[in-house]
Design brief:
Belongs to the GMC oxidoreductase family. The chain is of the alpha/beta class.
């Protein structure tokens, strides 16, 4: 019996990936970063049994807590998070003013699976069917979804009554209830997420666990790459060539060489009641399966949107909760919210039933920078998001806030006696409530993003001085080096990027296979 059990765990496709401490001196491919894209790349490249692949990941493995969808917020500021912060904003376009030190946190996953372990699991896509294993039959059988891929996608098995009010309220406002991962994006739906049987389905779980026994793939965790080693050009190509990497593990620097390529996939920069927990643990259902607390997703058109109606400019994340819902324990901390703001706006709501819509800008014009602070690879970069430098971004978001407020007035929400919070944001009381200047001030104070930075190594032609990689994701000016992750997006996608970045991992792997004659 014991032997049978042992064998089972060895071949269980959900057993944990093996952390290889003693790596070889050379591999065909070295993949730096095992996040949304990197996990896919490591899987797909090691499909060729004659190639050897090393995946170096700065963080460790996932935890039991990271498996629980509704506890996503508790991973931020933990060891699984790089804990980046934005630099204070410029005076001419201030933001994050309600946050301590005027700085917003920018969480990023430092763990096998990367930010797919920290994210809210909301799945948005259009045509990335190769990876998908959709487990909602009414979706799986449509032309826009597929089954049998590595990545499990489904609705949360639990939802509050407000989730349906959200969708119904949207219909009252004239929007269709639809699969917004289908033919058209504008509309309202119950959120689809990267979850499997009520647990998070990170890219580590989806793409690395099932192949943990492949002999040609080594995964080294707690291994932070600090340098790409450049070698002499080959005689037929004068460009410098990436020949390996230097990394630190257990306080010791090591080097490992790449015969073919180095692939950079390092990314663009608690419990409720015992009964709820037991329901989750025994039945894989219940409120803990909620996608980071997000139950509904919608894409809406403000008056500034493209007149076709097909290119929405605001996305809603709907949650039957708010900043106060955990009694001030964690959400206010991950928001870095000033005490004065929390105590004035949210603390009085501790006993109240609340819901929140986050209006999110889909096509921001304002662009920011991530710059190296110094030559020390362990130093954190300077992050300057430059939010709201374009007035259009502010105006569009204000219209998004107004549509969200209208939703509160629909019959679907009035059944619950819904009403907006009228307490004015400290720092904005000089403006009358619900005026444009008030909302602009509120946006510049409670500046909230849902952590989708991309584009720091954008794809573009060689003559574009801001382009880092070519259309085959090869770094301009050198050989043997590609970037395959969210940073290659020339512009941010209009929706949650995890699905598209997994697609970049798939596409990037296919490009590498093609270029090395393995198709
Ligand atoms: C809190 C949060 C919520 C989000 N919610 C959603 C959502 O609901 N839906 C959605 O679609 N998207 C969401 N996102 C965004 C999405 O998860 C990310 O955009 C996506 O995971 C990024 O993929 P990536 O491969 O580019 O980078 P990552 O997944 O961040 O992977 C980069 C990996 O590289 C490793 N690494 C970095 N530097 C080094 C180094 N020097 N050496 C070795 N390893 C290194 C990191 O530790 C990490 O594992 C969210 C993100 C966050 C942080």
């Amino acid at each position: 019996m014991a032997l049978t059990f042992f064998r089972y765990s060895a071949v269980d496709p959900e057993s944990r990936p093996i952390d290889v401490k003693q790596v070889r001196s050379e591999y065909d491919f070295i993949v730096v970063g095992g996040g949304s894209a990197g996990a896919v790349v490591a899987n797909r490249l090691s499909e060729n049994p004659s190639w050897t692949v090393l995946l170096l990941e700065a963080g460790g493995d996932e935890t039991e807590i990271s498996d629980v969808p509704s506890l996503a917020g508790y991973l931020q500021l933990s060891d699984l998070d790089w804990k980046y912060k934005t630099a204070p904003s410029p005076e001419e376009s201030p933001y994050c003013l309600a946050m301590n030190g005027d700085r917003c946190f920018w969480p990023r996953g430092k763990v096998l699976g990367g930010s797919s372990v920290l994210n809210a699991m909301i799945y948005i896509l259009h045509y990335f069917k190769k990876s998908e294993d959709n487990r909602n039959p009414y979706l799986a059988n449509t032309t826009y979804h597929s089954q049998g891929g590595y990545l499990t996608v489904q609705e949360s098995p639990w939802r509050s009554p407000l989730a349906l009010a959200f969708v119904k309220g949207g219909e009252e406002l004239g929007y269709e209830m639809r699969d917004i991962n289908g033919e058209k994006q504008t509309g309202f739906m119950i959120a689809q997420g990267t979850i499997r049987r009520g647990s998070r389905c990170s890219t580590a779980k989806a793409f690395l666990r099932p192949i943990r026994l492949r002999k040609n793939l080594h995964i080294s965790m707690y291994s932070q790459v600090t340098k790409i080693l450049m070698g002499r050009p080959k005689s037929d190509d004068p460009r410098p060539r990436a020949i390996g990497v230097r990394y630190m593990r257990d306080g010791v620097y090591r080097t490992v060489r790449a015969k073919k390529e180095v692939v950079l996939s390092a990314g663009a920069i608690k419990f409720q009641t015992v009964s709820v927990a037991m329901d989750y643990i025994i039945n894989e259902r219940g409120p803990l399966t909620s996608l980071g607390g997000v139950e509904g997703v919608a894409f809406v058109n403000t008056k500034y949107a493209d007149k076709s109606g097909l290119l929405p400019d605001i996305q809603f994340h709907f949650a039957p909760s708010s900043v106060n819902s955990d009694g001030g324990e964690q959400i206010r901390k991950v928001l870095n919210l000033r005490d004065a703001v929390y105590n004035t706006m949210y603390k009085p709501l501790v006993e109240a039933e609340t819901w929140t819509i986050l209006p999110l800008l889909l096509r921001p014009l304002s662009k920011g920078w991530v710059r190296l602070k110094n030559a020390n690879p362990m130093s954190y970069p300077i992050i300057e998001p430059n939010y709201f430098t374009h007035k259009e971004d502010v105006l569009t978001l204000i219209e998004g806030i107004r549509i969200a407020l209208n939703l509160s007035d629909t019959k679907a929400f009035q059944r619950f006696n819904s009403r907006p919070l009228l307490t004015q944001m400290p720092g904005c009381r000089k403006f009358p409530f619900d005026t444009d200047p008030y909302w602009e001030c509120a946006l510049r104070h409670f500046t909230f993003t849902i952590y989708h930075p991309v584009g720091t190594c954008k794809m573009g032609p060689a003559h574009d001085p801001t382009a880092v990689v070519d259309p085959r994701l090869r770094v301009h000016g050198v050989t043997g080096l590609r970037v395959v992750d969210g940073s290659i997006m020339p512009a941010i996608v209009s929706g949650n990027p995890n699905g598209p970045i997994i697609m970049i991992g798939e596409k990037g792997s296919d490009l590498i296979k093609e270029d090395w004659g393995y198709v």
